[in-house]
Automatic annotation (TrEMBL):
<keyword id="KW-0808">Transferase</keyword>
<dbReference type="Pfam" id="PF08541">
    <property type="entry name" value="ACP_syn_III_C"/>
</dbReference>
<dbReference type="GO" id="GO:0016746">
    <property type="term" value="F:acyltransferase activity"/>
</dbReference>
<feature type="domain" description="Beta-ketoacyl-[acyl-carrier-protein] synthase III C-terminal">
    <location>
        <begin position="5"/>
        <end position="31"/>
    </location>
</feature>
<protein>
    <recommendedName>
        <fullName>Beta-ketoacyl-[acyl-carrier-protein] synthase III C-terminal domain-containing protein</fullName>
    </recommendedName>
</protein>
<dbReference type="InterPro" id="IPR016039">
    <property type="entry name" value="Thiolase-like"/>
</dbReference>
<dbReference type="InterPro" id="IPR013747">
    <property type="entry name" value="ACP_syn_III_C"/>
</dbReference>
Amino acid sequence: MPQIGQIKKNDKIILYGFGGGLTHCGQLIKWPYES
């Protein structure tokens, strides 16, 4: 499970560790797995 607030610069995605996150554009996304 990703750490809360972890930033993947290569994907420009902020991970929140709840099975989803925000893209650099602020869009809600869902990960291919459930936390």
